Protein 1
Amino acid sequence: MTRIIMNGANGRMGKVIAGLLSADPEAEIVAGVDIAPGDTAFPVYPDLAEVKEEADVIIDFSNAGIVDHLLEVAAEKKLPVVLCTTGLSEEQLANVRKKSAEIPILRSANMSLGINTLTSLLGGATKVFGGAGYDIEIVERHHNQKLDAPSGTAIMLADAINDAAGGTYEYIYDRSQRREKRDSKELGISAVRGGTIPGTHEIIFAGPDEVIEIRHVAYSRSIFGNGAISAAKYLAGREPGLYDMNDVIAAMQN
């Protein structure tokens, strides 16, 4: 049984994960951390340092402002962290790398098993289609309440493509001021916001006389919750280091 501390227990993702774990025989939440009130089946503390329960791993879906404190306390408690909070600064990312020498930390811009598997597939696709001169575009669509654009997932997908191409692509977010033909080394990233559109990411490989489109649609937050739970089960008991969802997927394939 994997014993989990849920950081951000009364937030949207905290509630989703609690619901998923209520039917999971292999893992459970033994304590939560949140400054907001809520109705939970486990004790919730305002600070991770106050948690008394024994645990194997922390799942964090909170906000960037408390990540440094989270990692500090987690290192003191020798607890692995599945770090799902996004929007970290370069200084915070450097701290994540530093703390990973003391405890296992798994970080991903997107916890979906589907997105992370897709990211792995893009490497091979880019070497084939990019190498053949196909143009590559990413179009992401989200509801009208999403604050950032493009999404962190779109950048994650673009980075996977660019890494496979040896870093030769230039990210283009806006062509409105350009009156020129598309360069072969452009990687266009477009964002659509409207209504209640579910999170959608499309990768387009456009070549002579054919177009290949790869599409992922997130219909609920459960996909991120399931990914985080899989990551927590994987990370518990690991050696210190910096992990990502590719490690989780690789373990599933063995």
Protein 2
Amino acid sequence: MTTLTTLATAIASGTVRVIDLTHTLDPDFPVMILPPEFGQCARFRMEEVSAYDERGPAWKWHNLSMSEHTGTHFDAPSHWISGRDIPNGAVDEIDVKNFIGPVCVIDCSQGAKSDDDFELTVSIIQEWEADHGQIPKDAWVLMRTDWSHKRGAEYLNMREDGAHSPGPTPEAIQFLIDQRDIRGFGTETVGTDAGQGSHYSPPYPAHFYLHGAGKFGLQCLNNLDQLPPVGAILMAAPLKVKNGTGSPLRVLALIEETP
């Protein structure tokens, strides 16, 4: 059998399992809230056009509206000022081979459970590598925090000084880019940065460094607790929106089941 036939057979038999890493889009799913002087991200909205009725007797459909960065979504380099001049930096320009690749999952769930502002540091990455091997070049790195189990106001965790949620330090993101040359970075929170990421230097370092280096981001991921630390393949293809800076998408992972 060919490689693709073998893969299709393995998926059909359950030897390779498909894990959905995507939240369901609905009007109640939280979006990032910026200071009021800035423009705001639009929530998901669905308007019924017809439902087998006088508006359309044999069909049902909806009009959808939302921000590019609503729900489980992809960040392209052009999303951030540091990536605005990156060649092929919009979602419709990215080489499609970049949407499928290996993934490493760093489990920070215990730290995030006890500290809403838990930070992924270089030392945590190196400790993970001591157990699982060096992060390979061009891999996705996902920060598991189990934040996806939260709902509503608890998910954004807004206080008087802004949101509080875990994320990487500037040094950790620089290490992943400069020393490991990753493809992109993903989180279970509403952004690739910590909730208090505006207080780092530079502000929002995950966005600044990732997109300035032509790397990608994934936010609002789900079910990371179902992935192994290594060995999974990630499939994350955004909508092909002309000059789009990001897109909601269906993120899937393939994992090989052990006998």
